[in-house]
Fold this sequence. Notes:
- There is one protein chain.
- The protein has 296 residues and is of the alpha/beta class.
- It folds into two domains: 35-120, Rossmann fold; 146-276, NAD(P)-binding Rossmann-like Domain (Rossmann fold).
- It has ten helices and eleven strands.
- Strand 9 and strand 10 form a beta hairpin.
- Helix 6 (146-157) crosses helix 10 (276-294).
- It is globular, with a radius of gyration of 19 Å.
Amino acid sequence: MHETHTTYTLxxxxxxxxxxxxxxxxxxxxxxxxxxxxxxxxxxxxxxxxASQTYVDHKVKACKEVGFHYTLMRFAxxxxxxxxxxHIDQVNTDPDVDGFIVQLPLPAHLSVENITxxxxxxxxxxxxTNRNFGSIVSKNPxxxxxxxxxxxxxxxxxxxxxxxxxxxxxxxxxxxxxxxSMMLAEHGRATVTVCHKYTRNLPEFTRQxxxxxxxxxxxxxxxxDMVKEGAVVIDVGxxxxxxxxxxxxxxxxxDVDFVSVAPRCSMITPVPGGVGPMTIASLLLNTxxxxxxxxx
Length: 296
């Protein structure tokens, strides 16, 4: 029988994101005082997906909090790809817009790759374009993918050493798992194992992790018996689970079964309130960086 590690530290993404927002607010006020350009974020929202609308509302609220300018452009889910690309061109060439995101997911008839690749890399504050993705392994990365960078920032601010540690990343998506594994190896100097849906005997790998990061969108995938005693666990997965037993008709669940995993950890992120707030904080940091790169 494994002994359990009942005293774990909760990694509070809300607190860290609030700290980052305060730091950004100070920098925006300094820019204002010096008569410099104020960061401007443009957001395109296609359709009326409830979750996307919520995420966009959070982003708009965050812009207001730190003193950024913002523009929200909404389009019906029937918009053609050609029309949408024309609107993206307008934002690309608008000298006042520093950062620019297209909220995902998009309706099925629109190609995510065509649309994200159409965003100018220096305005791509989600860090999705091939150029920004590739810059992860350069000595001077441009705009790092927002969610993975949020995870790296959490590790840094909780003084979690990655150098020489074995990090296991479950999920190899282009949005989180793939860029994060590159960042952990390149910037974090960790030994990285990437697991995905074709991995055989997943627990064999997860049990070896000093730092376990899970980003697949399968609620409760990781259970207590799959985690090494004293590991650090970062849960990126956030899935809306619906049911009449929940007050709002749904709840948010992570990829980690918190109840069985937490007692075995040294540190763990909750869902919600862990990685989620850090994604928006990273988006704000990227928008500030994009502004500083274009208008010193």
